[in-house]
């Protein structure tokens, strides 16, 4: 189980690195799909079928939109020389990344080991969830009953993001006459 | 433990894309990769060995379930993620229409 | 946008309806099996996107579709809030507590299709909202590229 996950993660990291380093933007977008579809298999292995259903469709839609954008604008990666000041930024970024991973490994001591998670909040949901919300699927019970405000906020964000896209893409400037 | 560290490495790959790359599309890809890795990390934390998915069917009332709370949180976050990625792509399309390039350095020079 | 070849069109005619029905099934069974409003909504949006990609349409038709889908999106979020505040509205006539997001319908027997109070209703409204939102996003990008091609001609 854990070995399978590790193999999948290494595949996803390789896909992500290729997506960021590819010379052609179309192949970058397609190899970005490796990360998303690898995530679907990870969700299935980690016993989260709800998420797998959502992720597999959402990933397809994202890829369609990204390919539409790349085909309609340009496929070429930038070719000009790396300026000197970029090296400073790169070194600063590397230092930040090492600091990040150092503090992450420090904070891993506070987490329980993989697979030995102690449910604190969720004990209530698992034991009394069916009686409390009436829904057999505990995830739906949590999303719509216990955490209804959260769902309301999330669909409001979705609504606002769609309005933002429509405002950015479909706006027609005032015609000069 | 090594699973968590690999998950954070995926996050760092996305962060590398955001910090170092100069192409707008690559920056957006990096942001999306970061978002995926955070989702994956939350699900990894909630996993329990030999647990089943949190659906209480008949005969499984006392089985060991994985944590339903991170799943519920991530479920909404995925759908929000696609909307925000689409918003970023829309802004990138408009920038390309105005400046004719995805290079953020060129755009910086051309402004004003 | 130009359509695709006749093979794609014929296969799409058969498959798109099945995908749409599957999305409805996932949405309605959200409290019994894996799925729910978010999953079902994305699948329904996928079936519509498949139809547009296979058959194509001119800009005017696409704009008409976009107006309709953004209307359905607004309707979905409105019905969600209305259902969530149902207990407050009904408390003027019946003896309910005035609580936002109170499950004001009877819960029934867990495991049956009509159970869990207003959770199936909220699932359907979220499904409407998510499907319409994703389809509107897709249409906005398609219309943008269509207008660009028309200008070239």
List keywords for this structure.
heterotrimer, A: about 180 residues, mainly alpha, 3 domains, 7 helices, C: about 150 residues, 5 helices, about 70% helix, elongated
Folded structure, characterized:
Chain A is extended, with a radius of gyration of 22 Å. Chain A is built from seven helices and no strands. Chain A has three domains: 1-79; 80-111; 119-171, no CATH class. Chain A is mainly alpha-helical. With 112 residues, chain B is an all-alpha fold. Chain B has one domain (2-110): Helix Hairpins (Orthogonal Bundle). Chain B is built from four helices and no strands. Chain B has helices at 2-20, 24-46, 68-99, 104-110. The radius of gyration of chain B is 20 Å and the shape is elongated. The termini of chain B are far apart. The model of chain B has no long low-confidence stretch (mean pLDDT 84). Chain C has 153 residues and is mainly alpha-helical. Chain C has one domain. In chain C, 70% of the residues lie in helices and 0% in strands. Chain C has helices spanning 6-28, 37-55, 59-84, 86-90, 119-152. The radius of gyration of chain C is 19 Å and the shape is elongated. Chains in contact: A-B, A-C, B-C.
Mean pLDDT of chain C: 83
Number of domains of chain B: 1
Taken in chain order, the helices and strands of chain B follow as HHHH
The share of residues in helices of chain C is 55-70%
Q: First CA to last CA of chain C: what distance?
A: 14 Å
Terminal CA distance of chain B: 50 Å
CATH fold-type name of chain B: Helix Hairpins
Shape of chain B: elongated
Tell me the series of helices and strands of chain C, N- to C-terminal.
HHHHH
**Low-confidence segments of chain C:** none
The share of residues in extended strands of chain C comes to under 5%
Weakly predicted, low-confidence segments of chain B? none
Computed over alpha carbons, the radius of gyration of chain C is: 19 Å
Counting structural domains of chain C, the number is 1
Judged by helices, strands and strand pairing, the structural class of chain B is mainly alpha
Could you tell me the strand content of chain B as a percent range? under 5%
- Helix count of chain C? 5
Structural class of chain C: mainly alpha
Main sheet makeup of chain C: none
